[in-house]
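Structure first, sequence second, as always.
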């Protein structure tokens, strides 16, 4: 079984956001998949996907603080600022974290650990809705 769909994540403010439920809801064949892999590809260069803590929202706030210290806005010496001061820092953050995940599927569910969830790293002040190409490969 192969299935591919585009999941549109709603617009969010800058920061790290738990999007596991939106991803699961957007992949219609997931429940029928006995065993497989879900490949997620974020179709943007100024946001990222990663897996981390799904219970305590303080972790997501700390991620945002850490990455803002790691890649601050307003640093002199860079050229690319076509879309504003958050543009190039967003590209750097997206490259550090990446735009894709491969997640195991077992018995119609993502086989994430107890405290794991999928994060969208929104690195722009106004990034808009984000598209994720979701490719499910598995057995029914």
């Amino acid at each position: 079984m192969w299935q591919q769909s585009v999941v549109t994540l709603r617009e969010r403010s800058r920061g790290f956001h738990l999007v596991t439920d939106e991803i699961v809801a957007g992949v219609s064949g997931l429940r029928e998949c006995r065993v497989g892999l879900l490949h997620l590809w974020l179709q943007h260069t100024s946001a990222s996907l990663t897996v981390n803590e799904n219970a305590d929202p303080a972790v997501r706030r700390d991620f945002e603080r850490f990455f803002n210290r790691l890649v601050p806005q307003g640093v002199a010496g860079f050229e690319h600022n076509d879309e504003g001061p958050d543009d190039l820092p967003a590209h750097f953050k997206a490259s550090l974290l990446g735009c894709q995940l491969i997640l195991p599927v077992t018995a119609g569910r993502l086989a994430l650990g107890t405290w794991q969830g999928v994060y969208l790293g929104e690195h722009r002040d106004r990034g808009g809705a984000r598209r994720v190409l979701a490719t499910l490969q598995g057995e029914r």
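Margin note: The mean pLDDT is 96.
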